[in-house]
Amino acid sequence: MEDLKLLLNELKSKNFFEADELCVIGCSTSEVIGERIGSVGSMDVAQEIFEALKEIENDTNVAFVFQGCEHINRAITIERSKFDPLTMEEVSVIPDVHAGGSLATYAYQHMQDPMVVEHITVPKGIDIGQTLIGMHITHVAIPERTSVKQIGEAVVTIASSRPKKIGGERAKYN
């Protein structure tokens, strides 16, 4: 999965990953292998992606969280140590290949102490296969351009965020 490693190294060189910051990963392994999202899934592809992300996590101390598929309302698999009860609500579900997606399932099986939360707001994310991670990105989301446009056959979109700009020269008031 050379394109993924190239993407992650490019983002690392741009200081995209910050220590102790959460970064949401949405991934359709079906799209990566050239199939329609949610159709086949691949735990082998999920393993490759998870392991590449784990290397970046170890190098940068960023904390990856994993968005599940629409069948679990795009809930987030997260390490319990990163859970914030003031901003997150735990839900009772275990991601499965057919209800959660392969990557969220693989992550749940290989994290130290995983849990699932209904919703999260994080400053950055990587969307592999148009999984719609935007619902979990802090306002205002902005695209990050990279040389890598696809992982396998899946379109990849990178998002970061900035604080809202309120007022200014172009603002209008009553």
From TrEMBL:
| Domain of life the protein comes from | Bacteria
What residue intervals traverse the membrane?
Answer: none
Q: Which SUPFAM superfamilies match?
A: TTHA0583/YokD-like (SSF110710)
Record-stated family: Belongs to the UPF0340 family.
Q: What is this protein called?
A: UPF0340 protein M4L21_12955
Q: What is the source species? A: Staphylococcus equorum
